[in-house]
Amino acid sequence: MISTKDIYQLRLKPFVEKEISEDKDHVYLDKHNKKEWLSHILAEMMEYLSFEPFITMTDEELRKLVGKRMATELVTGMLNDFSPEQMKIFNECLVRR
């Protein structure tokens, strides 16, 4: 019998790998290697998305979700490295809605 974790991993792996392969500037691989990315996204999905919604998502929905989570992880890492002055400039550039 296949475990729930294995099902998450089998379904997520192609989307994580595709996101990394389409990254022409290799910014994803500057942060983590492929295995670390998959492990990170797997942990997040298992924590925040229960099995039934996960398994019933379309490939397109899952692809978008994986891309957003990976991009968010990159931005979070960048923001942690900003000096207070850089953070102020960044905040001033954000479009408020």
Based on the model shown, name its key terms.
mainly alpha, 97 residues, elongated
Number of domains: 1
CA-based shape: elongated
Mean pLDDT over all positions:
89
Instruction: Give helix % range.
Output: over 70%
State the separation between the terminal residues, measured CA to CA: 48 Å
Structure description:
The protein is mainly alpha-helical and 97 residues long. The protein has one domain (4-93). Helix content is 79%, strand content 0%. The protein has 6 helices and no strands. Helix 1 packs across helix 3. The chain is elongated, with a radius of gyration of 16 Å. The relative contact order is 0.13.
Summed up:
With 97 residues, the chain is an all-alpha fold.
Q: Helices, strands, pairings?
A:
Elements: H1 4-21, H2 27-31, H3 34-48, H4 51-56, H5 59-81, H6 84-93
